[in-house]
Specification:
heterodimer; A: mainly alpha; four-stranded mixed sheet; 15 helices; B: five-stranded antiparallel sheet; 11 strands; 38% helix; binds adenosine-5'-diphosphate; binds magnesium ion
């Protein structure tokens, strides 16, 4: 194999690739835009929903309000409830005219005053989010009422409140800010970046194989003095570059988006500051190299089989699912890296990247995963090269 | 020079079973001569030429191209041939200049020589006006010129042209015919396949009739006339192939 010819092919493929609008979109535009849109969209949607829920007025029906004048008047002035005069509360609830109905027992105030337990019934529809939320709010309201009654009763009996709360639990979050930021990133980043590395290389892989067959340029290349090995190497390196570029662009976009103020996470009350250790990013790229190699050669091999763009896409869609599912383990809580998992491609990288982004460096695992993925990648490259030598694959009829 | 020795290629097809696309072919094409391969669709012309250009490997037999064996020395063989067919398209996103330069580099030409050769070819083929235009923006005639320049950029001694006029308009076809004549004058060895009698009759020094992978007859037009005792090539062809063959 002549490295000069590999270089010639590589540079031609890169030039060709960068002139393909589809490739540019999937390799650069999508990863740049996806994260801001996703994160900004998600956070503003959540903020909006929270605000709306807070402002919303819940129509309710009160039965026997006169039995509990104090609570009833409190409900009347509460802005989150509107008391409507509906006699058939069951139908009203079903028709979503009201979100809940209340029933005070006949002797409510009498029993409270006597130091007894009185009954309130809340009717709601657990299958309706708004009704569920309204019942929760009513719950809170009555808890506060109950609390005030208890305090009152204890005062009369001259008992201290601490009798009811022998243990006071205080929680303090000692996670470094970096880890808080990392936590969010660590969930999404490995998953997203691994998918992006795949989708970014998908079009180039198809274009350089099935695309060449479809356009009839494959034979032109095959009759040139370049050897099959040189052609495979040049094409592989080009697809690998596309995969790596997509990874770098997505990581950059995600880190910048997560760190910028416009994501408004503070407003969501998380207060997390997003910063990622440079060492983590370095290890991330180091581990992405064999992964991108593996992904690129699998993409190349599969699309080389196809006769056309369409056929290649139908081969690659299932592959996307095969990679998306294992990569998703970084989402699963409690799914930890182990020696056995370190040998399963995709899953291992996803898990170790999650750890690394959280600032945990198990160097043994990192080395092992780098090595095992490299070995898988080499096997895949070898298979790709073999396929390029098979005329049944190149000239399928 | 091209010399095939018992060259054969068998395909295994799931539906059709064994296909002897090229069956024990022995041919010799000399420099300065145009050798025509005449056959119907599916006769095995393309397969034979793919074997010679080493993109397919023979099932048995071999061939020598300028002394290089197609099995043991495929890269040298490819460096010595210019191969053009309707299946050898151009990269749509490269310009005419980039296309020719790319294949020049793959042929190992140094940059000075590439400059000199491309200038020469762009002038000869009258392609200077669209030198930096992308291939997908070219007319089919322009594309054909770029293809021809691509085929001979490394000045190969041997040209293998598989139905080069297939699907082209009259003017472009004429340019190709001219190109083939000129190659002959330059003492190149041209192997040229067609299913058009008129083209073969007009152009070829020697004609081989190929049918179902086998060479049925080979020789100059005069020699073919003598053996079959018919005057026109199409009559000769039908006689050789057999009247009963209809499609
Ligand atoms: N890759 C292939 N696999 C299976 N059969 C093939 C393949 N290529 C060609 N053939 C068959 O071989 C025969 C010769 O085809 P071809 O060489 O293309 O003929 P021609 O170029 O003269 O039209 C045909 O029957 C064709 O279907
Ligand atoms: Mg053909």
């Amino acid at each position: 194999m002549n490295s000069k010819k590999v270089k010639i092919i590589y540079f031609k493929e890169m030039k060709d690739m960068l002139r393909d609008r589809r490739t540019l979109i999937s390799m650069i535009l999508v990863p740049i835009l996806l994260f801001p849109i996703l994160i900004f969209g998600m956070s503003s949607l959540m903020i909006k929903m929270t605000k709306q829920a807070a402002k919303r007025v819940n129509p309710i029906v009160v039965i026997g309000g006169d039995n509990a004048p104090a609570l009833f008047s409190q409900l009347k002035v509460d802005k989150s409830f509107e008391i409507v005069p509906e006699s058939d509360y069951q139908t009203a609830l079903k028709d979503k005219k009201i979100t809940a109905a209340l029933e005070f027992s006949t002797d409510f105030e009498k029993k409270i005053d006597a130091g007894d337990s009185a009954q309130i019934k809340i009717y709601y529809d657990a299958a309706e989010i708004r009704s569920e939320m309204a019942s929760g709010k009513l719950d809170n309201l009555f808890k506060a009422f109950q609390d005030s009654v208890v305090t009152e009763r204890l005062k009369v009996k001259k008992v201290d409140r601490s009798l009811l709360h022998p243990v006071k639990v205080q929680k303090e979050n000692l996670a470094p800010k970096e880890k808080m930021g990392g936590f969010f990133l660590a969930m999404f980043l490995p998953y997203m970046i691994m998918i992006m590395a795949l989708t970014g290389a998908m079009y180039p892989a198809i274009d350089l194989t099935a695309g060449e067959k479809e356009r009839g340029t494959m034979e032109t290349l095959l009759v040139s003095p370049a050897s099959r090995g040189e052609i495979t190497s040049g094409k592989f390196l080009a697809v690998f570059t596309a995969s790596l570029i997509t990874s770098i662009v997505s990581t950059g976009s995600m880190v910048i988006t997560a760190g910028s103020s416009f994501t408004r996470f503070e407003e969501m009350g998380k207060g997390a500051v997003f910063s990622v250790n440079p060492l983590s990013i370095l290890i991330l790229f180091l581990l992405m190299i064999p992964y991108c190699c593996l992904a690129s050669s699998i993409l190349l091999s599969l699309s080389l089989f196809a006769k056309s763009y369409k056929e290649a896409q139908s081969y690659l869609s299932p592959l996307l699912i095969v990679i998306i599912l294992p990569a998703m383990v970084s989402f699963l809580p409690g799914f930890e890296l182990s020696a056995r998992l370190a040998f399963i491609p995709v899953i291992n990288t996803s898990l170790v990247l999650k750890e690394v982004l959280l600032g945990t460096y198990h160097w043994g695992f990192i080395g092992l995963i780098f090595l095992s993925t490299t070995i898988y990648a080499l096997i895949a490259i070898f298979i790709t090269r073999r396929l390029f030598e098979r005329e049944q694959v190149l000239f399928r009829t | 020079m091209i010399k095939t020795i018992n060259l054969s290629k068998t395909f295994q097809d799931k539906k059709r079973g064994e296909i002897r696309a090229v069956d024990n072919v022995n041919l010799e094409c000399q420099p300065g001569k145009i050798f025509g391969l005449l056959g119907l669709n599916g006769a095995g012309k393309t397969t034979l030429m793919r074997l010679l250009s080493t993109v397919l490997k023979p099932t048995s037999g071999t061939a020598k191209i300028n002394g290089f064996d197609i099995i043991s020395d495929p890269q040298k063989v490819r460096a010595n041939i210019g191969f053009l067919s309707s299946d050898t398209a151009l990269y749509p996103r490269l310009t005419a200049q980039e296309t020719v330069t790319y294949f020049a580099r793959l042929n190992g030409l140094d940059e000075d020589l590439i400059q000199q050769r491309t200038d020469e070819l762009f002038r000869i083929f009258n392609m200077e006006s669209f030198r930096d235009r992308r291939v997908d923006k070219l007319s089919s005639g322009m594309k054909q010129k770029v293809s021809l320049a691509r085929t001979i950029i490394h000045n190969p001694k041997i040209l293998i042209l598989d139905e080069p006029t297939l699907g082209l308009d009259v003017i472009t076809s004429r340019n190709i015919i001219q190109f083939i004549r000129k190659a002959k004058e330059e003492d190149k060895c041209v192997l040229f396949s067609t299913h058009i009698m008129y083209e073969a009759e007009k152009l070829c020094d020697e004609i081989a009739v190929i049918h179902q992978g086998k060479i049925l007859a080979v020789g100059t037009l005069e020699k073919l006339r003598d053996t079959v005792r018919l005057k026109n090539l199409d009559e000769i062809f039908v006689k050789l192939v057999g009247e009963e063959h209809e499609f």
